[in-house]
């Protein structure tokens, strides 16, 4: 699921800032002193409804939303900065700084300012998705499922009123009609519509801050949703922009630092997704063979080799995936360390056993007091 971008960059910035506020709220059903609050959890959103809610909330705070289609972009003849956008109908919106939330077209960052795009399709060959809603389960599922197929993978996301389903695939290995048949034949509940085809190009805009324009959302690039990182990248871009926001004007130092951090963050996410594909041991199609044998970036090759050597995982700067995530994919897909750090010998078998028993108790004890998933949804979301 993706947050849908309205046409007004100003309203969109406020909406995305609200995502940060939402993250700061504690779960209302968990007492802050309870061990239940230590259990990890995540949210499933209907992105269209969430976007509408954030739009209304922003407008109540005084955000001015201007509805219109951009016909043209006015650039300063000396600096090359965007000075205004011309709307269909003749109106113009002027400004000193612009947030490009125009989606994959990148009306400002790509088309007007001609920022380069870095294509990562040779590492992440999936370039299409089919999406279709289906009837909800009688009892709401607790989690998203990612289901591998011979030319990609399928998602199933449970919501209160329906299930979201989709198939991400490589058009070089599976045609659209066969992909639709695959998706519709693997639904767990009855479809509520025909599948919608989405074409995409994996990669990033090299200069995500260019002159007086910052790209946020799809205008900054796209990574397939295998790890559901799109909303995170929106939030992270907003935080980065707030930290480096210009005061007396845009400076080279601010732009360079923003782009440096964005580059590292995008590449670490890219590499973690590549890891899922490259380490596969499947033999049911050319797609999986191709990604298993493809060349991979040096950074991820070094990370795999280091882990295989002695189990070492080094956290990289701006990497949103912590060591446990890398550990799960490495071990889960057959990378077994040949050695380990000698400090591990200082932990006795009895100490390790006690630690595991205590961890198990910590996770199991709260379960007796937890409501079922549907009881929780009725209590927290019924209004």
Structural features, described:
The chain is of the alpha+beta class. Helix content is 37%, strand content 16%. The protein contains eleven helices and 14 strands. The strands form four sheets. A five-stranded antiparallel beta sheet has the order 7-8-9-6-10, with helices on one face. It has a three-stranded antiparallel beta sheet with strand order 1-2-3. The two termini are 23 Å apart.
Tally of DSSP β-strands:
14
The side-by-side strand order for the widest beta sheet comes to 7-8-9-6-10
Structural class: alpha+beta
Number of helices: 11
Categorize the overall geometry: globular
Q: Could you tell me the radius of gyration in angstroms?
A: 23 Å
Distance between termini? 23 Å
**% residues in beta strands:** 15-25%
Low-confidence stretches: 1-33
Following the backbone from N to C, one meets helices and strands in this order, namely: HHEEEEHEEEEEHEEEEEHHHHHHH
Mean pLDDT: 89
Brief characterization of the structure:
Helices cover 37% and strands 16% of the residues.
What's the layout of helices and strands?
Blueprint: H1 9-24, H2 47-60, E1 70-75, E2 82-87, E3 92-94, E4 98-100, H3 107-112, E5 117-119, E6 128-134, E7 145-149, E8 152-158, E9 163-169, H4 176-184, E10 196-199, E11 203-205, E12 209-210, E13 213-215, E14 221-222, H5 230-243, H6 252-278, H7 286-293, H8 298-310, H9 323-332, H10 349-364, H11 373-381
Parallel strand pairs: 4-13
Antiparallel strand pairs: 1-2, 2-3, 5-11, 6-9, 6-10, 7-8, 8-9, 11-14, 12-13
Helix pairs in contact: 1-2, 1-5, 5-6
């Amino acid at each position: 699921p993706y947050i849908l971008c309205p046409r007004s960059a100003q309203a969109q910035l406020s909406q995305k800032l609200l995502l940060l506020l939402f993250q700061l709220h504690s779960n209302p059903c968990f007492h802050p002193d309870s061990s239940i609050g230590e259990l990890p959890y995540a949210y499933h959103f209907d992105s269209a409804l969430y976007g509408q809610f954030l739009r209304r909330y922003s407008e109540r705070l005084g955000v001015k939303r201007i509805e219109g289609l951009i016909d043209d972009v006015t650039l300063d003849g000396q600096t090359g900065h965007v000075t205004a956008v011309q709307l269909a109908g003749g109106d113009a919106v002027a400004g000193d700084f612009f947030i490009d939330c125009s989606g994959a077209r990148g009306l400002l960052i790509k088309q007007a300012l001609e920022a380069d795009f870095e294509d990562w399709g040779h590492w992440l060959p999936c370039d299409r998705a089919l999406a279709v809603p289906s009837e909800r389960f009688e009892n709401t599922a607790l989690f998203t499922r990612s289901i591998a197929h011979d030319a990609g993978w399928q998602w199933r996301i449970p919501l209160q009123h329906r299930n979201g389903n989709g198939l991400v695939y490589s058009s070089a290995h599976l045609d659209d009609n066969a992909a639709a048949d695959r998706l519709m034949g693997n639904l767990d509940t009855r479809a509520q519509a025909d599948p919608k085809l989405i074409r995409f190009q994996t990669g990033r805009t090299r200069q995500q801050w260019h002159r007086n324009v910052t790209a946020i959302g799809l205008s900054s690039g796209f990574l397939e949703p295998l790890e559901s990182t799109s909303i995170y990248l929106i939030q992270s871009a907003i935080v980065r922009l707030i930290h480096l926001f210009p005061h007396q004007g845009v400076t080279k130092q601010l732009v360079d630092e923003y782009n440096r951090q964005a580059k590292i963050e995008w590449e670490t996410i890219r590499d973690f997704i590549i890891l899922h594909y490259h380490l596969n041991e499947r033999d049911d199609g050319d797609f999986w063979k191709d990604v298993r044998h493809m060349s991979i970036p040096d950074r991820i090759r070094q990370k795999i080799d280091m882990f295989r050597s002695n189990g070492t995982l080094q956290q990289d700067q701006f990497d949103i995936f912590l060591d446990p995530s890398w550990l799960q994919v490495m071990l889960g897909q057959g990378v077994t360390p040949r050695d380990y750090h000698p400090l591990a010998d200082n932990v006795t078998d009895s100490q390790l056993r006690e630690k595991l028993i205590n961890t198990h108790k910590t996770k199991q004890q709260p379960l007796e007091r937890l409501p079922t998933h549907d009881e929780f949804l009725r209590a927290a979301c019924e209004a």
